Amino acid sequence: MALVITIIVLLILAGITINLTIGQRGILRRAEEAGRNYQEAAKKEDEDLAKFLGEADNIIAGINTPTTPSGDKYTMVDGVPVPKGFEHTEGTKETGFVIKDNSGTETNGNEFVWVPCTEDGVNGSIKYDRYAFSRTGWEYTQTKNETTGEINVPNLGEYVFTEDMPSIEINSIKRYGGFYIGRYEVGIVDYDANVVTSNTNDETEWTGYSNGKAVVQPNKQVWNYITRDMAKKVAEGMYSDNDAVVSRLCSSYAWDTTLKFIETNNAGYTTNSGGGNYSGSLNLTGGSKARNNIYDMGGNDWEWTTEVYSFQDSPCVLRGGYYSNTASDRPAGYRTYNSTTCAYDNVTSRLTLFIRL
Fold this sequence. Notes:
Blueprint: H1 2-22, H2 27-61, E1 74-77, E2 80-83, E3 86-90, E4 97-101, E5 111-116, E6 143-144, E7 151-152, E8 160-162, H3 167-176, E9 178-182, E10 187-188, E11 214-215, H4 228-237, E12 245-249, H5 252-265, E13 276-277, E14 298-299, E15 302-309, E16 316-319, E17 335-338, E18 347-349, E19 351-355
Parallel strand pairs: 13-14, 15-18
Antiparallel strand pairs: 1-2, 3-4, 4-5, 5-9, 6-7, 7-8, 8-15, 9-19, 10-11, 12-19, 15-16, 16-17
């Protein structure tokens, strides 16, 4: 009986083993299934890698096809990302790549220029940075502390110009290799002569014009009599409905890097001499003509930036000079300052665009 029972138990165990090995869900079947799954996963990985490499080639070659995995937020043209809602109209990456928005609203037709740059300035690229512009024999001299990043103007006293690197800007620079800057100063849709263009009460939210809609177009009345904070608000709201770009008031990084780009690509446009609209044409961007397929950054009106001056009573920084200056007196690299309530006829702003991550 013991032998019979032993044989029966062995037969049962043998049946279980055979079933576990070659049955419907047996080890061999599972091993075979795992092999198929591995092959399919490897095939998909190869396909994904090929797709990624193809998109990378498109970016390098500048092929005009969408390349963002999160959606068609931009297309590549000549190696430059053209954001959704815009089209390339003229120029090249080296000479001034211009785009224009085509949103179909009354404010469409705004023009921006691509400024190629990198975070570290390697391989001959322009570094996205703040620069001290000076020239020999000029009483206005700028120096930069490379440790702290502070820029000092000795004849202005002990105070310094500072600004932290805007993370939203540098992250976009890292990914896309550049940014857009307004080809012209910020203007208004239609100038209303019946509106008194003054700000005698120093109202910080005062727009100066009845429509309050900003444009970046030639031959428009610039949006002057605007405070720095209002200029920042206008800039950040201009493309708030476009998920492809972030619009910002020009930072000192964007201003200085743009001047470096212009100097590098056009020897006739220097930040320390010419390069401005010093013709006395009060408040009209129409006098500003494209230089090297770009624009001028000096003269016409002072322009607000997000840079900060350490003098507590006047922390807001202006760049570029205005219509009654001369290029030698107030070149495009010039820095000056004023209060948060400053809003005069010779003060306006300039917009920058960064591709969203």
